[in-house]
Amino acid sequence: MQWIPAILLIFSLLSNHLIDLNTADERLLLTIPGIGQTVAASIVEYREDFGPFVEMSELEYVRGIGPETAELIEEHAFIDPCVGPSPDTSHWLPEVDSLEPVVTVSFLDVGQGDAILVQAEEGMTLLFDGGPDPGGPLEPPVVFRLRELGVDTIHVLAFSHPHSDHIGGLSAVIGHFAVLEVLDPGMVFASFVYEDLLASVAEAGCSYVLMREGMELELSDRVLVTVESMGMEGADLDLNENSALLRVTCGDFSALLTGDIEVGAEMLLTPSAMPVTVLKVPHHGSLSSAFPPYLRRLSPQVAVFSAGRGNPFGHPNPGVVETYSEMGCVILRTDTEGTIVVQSDGEVFSTSAAEALYRPGDDIEH
User: Fold this and answer.
1) Are 257 and 229 a contacting pair, CB within 8 Å?
2) What is the span of the domain harbouring residue 334?
3) pLDDT tens track for 67-83
4) Whose CA is closest to 269, among 256, 284, 252, 285?
5) CA within 20 to 30 Å of 96's CA: 66, 67, 169, 308, which one?
């Protein structure tokens, strides 16, 4: 390790002619070619809202900075590697091989989509999203998964937003299981899949409630589900950005279920973001849903990617997987491991993969 002081000395000498991107005020930033008053103010505002820059690549998120301006800044500025915030792992819990669970969160292998089952011991069961319905003679994958886990009653069925890869299987769920209540985020969106779901709710006579931000659901006396966010104001037509977020808490354990939010929503959520044990990675690990300050605020111990095997979108993006890996997260993926089961008693947690008789994409003779 004797080479470290030498490298730091060289870095210090070189940086004498560069501007520290995290400490420069607007006046000093204006000395960089190509930067005007607006961009200089935007850089300072970004630091105030989201903390110091950790990587130069974060410049792409600063209002008013395009690729050419970013290149100029990189030529005339530097980021002190000693200034970047250390990962906050104070909320991380011990991982054990087995425990007496108080809460079980299962990220169901439904192919290219999301479906998460939350079960409170001696309490209620919540299904958040229902994955796609590929059509054909087979039932939607979510039905297979719920049967494999021995589910017969779903006390609360909720969904993040009405895209087909999140609600496609829910009509079949209502038809095959006892569903007592449906929580709808209430987005205006015309689609046959959404209309079929609403018709199924009416036909089954389920209690139907519009979701609202801050709503709390007590699945048991130790398991609480909170509607943490209901989307971006002014983004009525962007269903992904308007995804409802649910936070599951049990003692010191927490899981954040994020739907398909993208960078716009992540930037708005960053100032109020709270650390989490388990994160359902937004938008199947899309490159458009990995705002670095948001991920640093959440500092998840476990990152779960829900995506289909060989999906045409390239989810999860390899760069996004690497980002979470570099944060020290345990990486779990439904496309490679199947249904991911996380259990906790509020003090420790365990992870495992559930055995499956059928996986979306399997070659099955009908």
Assistant:
1) no
2) 103-353
3) 988 998 999 999 988 77
4) 256
5) 308
Structure tokens at 188: 């205006």
Under 8 Å CB-to-CB from 276, ≥6 apart: which residues? 91, 247, 254, 255, 256, 298, 299, 300, 301
CATH number at residue 54: 1.10.150.280
Residue 52 CA to residue 78 CA, distance in Å, equals 12
What confidence category does residue 351 fall into, taking pLDDT thresholds of 50, 70 and 90?
very high
Question: Which tokens hold the place of 59?
Answer: 């410049």
Summarize the confidence of residues 132-151 as an average pLDDT. Answer: 92
Check whether residue 314 and residue 186 sit in a common domain.
yes
Residue type, 227: V
pLDDT at 2: 52
Structure tokens at 157: 């069925």
> Given this model, what pLDDT does residue 88 score?
86
**pLDDT tens digits, 99-113:** 999 999 999 999 999
CATH of the domain at 194: 3.60.15.10
Is residue 349 within 8 Å of 95, Cβ to Cβ? yes
User: What's this model's pTM, rounded to 2 decimal places?
Assistant: 0.90
Does 109 share its domain with 59? no
Say how many domains are in the chain.
2
Q: Are 153 and 125 in contact (CB under 8 A)?
A: yes
Task: Compute the distance between CA of residue 161 and CA of residue 163 in angstroms, rounded to an integer.
Answer: 6
Residue length of the chain = 366
Say whether 7 sits in a helix, a strand or coil.
helix
CA dihedral 79, 81, 82, 84 (to 10 degrees): 70
Tokens read off for 82? 């000693």
